[in-house]
Design brief:
Helix Hairpins, 3 helices
Length: 100
């Protein structure tokens, strides 16, 4: 059996990598993937604690978070594709130029 600390350390590392990717990169796709990485690290924490205390409510909550994340990914990617078609760039600095 793997100790709880290992899962929490892995989740913290994944979350920090997501934050670094979100802050350092100026590409919309990279920022979007970093947000998803942070969301999945939180899901890992929920599952680890749920398994540790033998309660299924954390795992059920993760299921709903994953469903919402899938919908968010579809909408987010659609917005990114529309932005790329209009501006032919994925640079975040050009987002403010979408104003009329």
């Amino acid at each position: 059996m793997v100790p709880l600390n290992y899962f929490l350390i892995l989740a913290a590392i994944l979350f920090c990598l997501g934050v670094i990717g979100f802050v350092m990169k100026r590409n919309l796709i990279t920022m979007f993937m970093s947000i998803e990485l942070m969301l999945n690290s939180v899901n890992l924490t929920f599952v680890a604690f749920s398994r540790h205390i033998n309660v299924l409510s954390g795992q059920i909550f993760v299921f709903f978070v994953m469903v919402i994340a899938a919908a968010e990914a579809a909408v987010g990617l659609a917005i990114i594709v529309a932005f790329y078609r209009n501006r032919e760039s994925l640079n975040v600095d050009e987002v403010d130029r979408m104003k009329l």
